[in-house]
Amino acid sequence: MADQVIMMNEYRPVDVSKEAKDLCREYPALRVAERGKGFGKLEPRVPLPESFDPQRGRKTKVKARGLDTVQFGNYQIELDDVEQLIDPSQTRAIADIIYYAWKRYLHGRYPLSEAIRRIENDLDQYGLEIVSPFKEKSGDYARPRGLEIAAAINRLRSLKIR
User: Which of 102, 104, 143, 162 meets the CB 3.0–4.6 Å disulfide criterion with 46?
Assistant: First the structure.
C-alpha cells in the first residue's frame, strides 16, 4: 500500500490516501505468496556452439548493416532497441566480436557472462584489432560495452542456451 495516493479530480490533485487505505482494509489482497522471500538462484546461461553458424551457403557472412543490424550467417540481429549504440563503427565491432567470441569462447563451456568478461579482457589487452578479419589494423571500429555485446548475442534468433 502506498503512503500517499493522489487522485486527479477535474485537473486538480486530491489526496485520497485515507479512502485508499480504507478500501484496502475492506478488500484485503487474497494473493498467496508463490515463493519464499528471495528471488531464487539464477542459473548461468551457457550458449551452445550450434547456435552460432556464420556460414551463408559456402561463405562466412558476418557483417554490420548500418547502426541497427548485424548479419550473422543466415540471421539478422536487430539492434534498434539497443539505444546505447550511437555509431555504426560500434555495430561493425559487435559483428566481428561475435565471430571472434564464437571461435574462442562460445563453445558450450563458459556462461555468457564469463565469455563477455574474457572478450573484454582480450580487448583491453590487445585492442579491437584482435577481432578484425584483416591482417592489417582496422581503424573502422569503436569499442562497444560488454552489455551491448551481450544484447546482440541474446538477440540472435538461433541462440540456444544450456
Answer: 162
Cell of 114: 564469463
Decide: 73 and 54 in contact? Cβ < 8 Å: yes
Backbone phi, psi, residue 78, to 5°: -90, 120
Give the pLDDT confidence of 60-72 residue by residue, as tens digits.
Answer: 999 999 999 999 9
Selection from 74, 90, 81 nearest residue 145 by Cα: 90
List beta partners, residue 60.
55
- What's the alpha-carbon Rg for the chain, to the nearest Å? 24
Q: Which residues of 87-108 are buried (b: 16+ CB within 10 A; e: fewer)?
A: ebbbbbbbbbbbbbbbeebbee
Helix (H) or strand (E) holding 76: strand 75-78
Which residues lie closer than 8 Å to 111 by C-beta, 6 or more apart?
A: 44, 45, 46
Which three-class secondary structure state does DSSP give residue 65? strand
Do 62 and 95 form a contact (C-beta atoms < 8 A)?
Answer: yes
Full-model pTM: 0.75
Torsion sign, CA atoms 42, 44, 50, 56: positive
